[in-house]
Amino acid sequence: MAGNTQETRAPRDGLQRLGTVSAAAAALTATVALSMVLVAFGNITDFGTNQQFVQHVLAMDTTFKDPDLMWRAVTSPALQNAAYLAIIVWEVLTAAVLVLATWLWVAGLRGGSHGRARRASSTGLVMVLLLFGAGFFGIGGEWFAMWQSADWNGLDSALRYVVLAAVALIVVHLPDGSRAAD
C-alpha cells in the first residue's frame, strides 16, 4: 500500500508538475504578463511611436474619409494624448495584476491553493480582453474605422492578444484534476 501511495504522488513531483493544468495556467498567465510588461515598457520608453498610432486612429486621417463617419474623428492633440496616457496606465495596471497572478500561481504550485491565483489571472486577462477587444476592436476598429487604414491598423496585433488572453482565461478555469488523481 505504501508503494502505491508514492506512485500516486510521483506524477505531482518535480518536472512532472509541469504537465498539470495549474502549471499550464501559470505558464500562460506568465506569458501574457511578460507581453503586457513589454507592451507597457515599450509605450513608456518609446512614447512617440505609438502616440502617432493613437493620434492617426483617433483623427481618422488615413481612413476612407467617409463624411458619414468623419464626425467621429478626435483631432484635439490634448484629447489624443489623454487617450494614449489612459491606454498606458491600463497596460501598466494590467501588467502588474498579471505579474502578481503569476507569482500566486508559482506559490500555489508548491502546494498551496490556486483560488487567489485564478482570481488574479482572471482579472488581468479580462483587462487584456477589454483593452484589445473593446478598445482596439470596438472603439478603434469600428468607431474610428481603423480597419480602413492601410498604415495605422492594429487589428491583427490586437487579435493575437485577444486570442492569447482568451485561451489563457479558459485554461485558468479548467478543473485542475489533482484531487481525482489522489
Percent of residues in helices comes to over 70%
The total count of helices amounts to 7
Bulk shape: elongated
Distance, first to last CA? 14 Å
Main sheet: strands, sense, barrel: none
Strand portion: under 5%
H-E string: HHHHHHH
Secondary-structure content class: mainly alpha
Q: What is the assembly state of the chains in this entry?
A: single chain
Roughly how many Å is the radius of gyration? 21 Å
Q: How many domains comprise the coordinates?
A: 1
**Average of the residue pLDDT scores:** 91
- In the predicted model, the low-confidence regions spanning at least 5 consecutive residues are 3-12
Report the strand count: 0
What this model shows, in words?
There is one protein chain. The protein has about 180 residues and is an all-alpha fold. Helices cover about 70% and strands about 0% of the residues. The longest helix is centred in the middle third of the chain and has 33 residues, at about 75-110. The chain is elongated and about 60 Å long. Residues about 5-10 have low confidence and may be disordered.
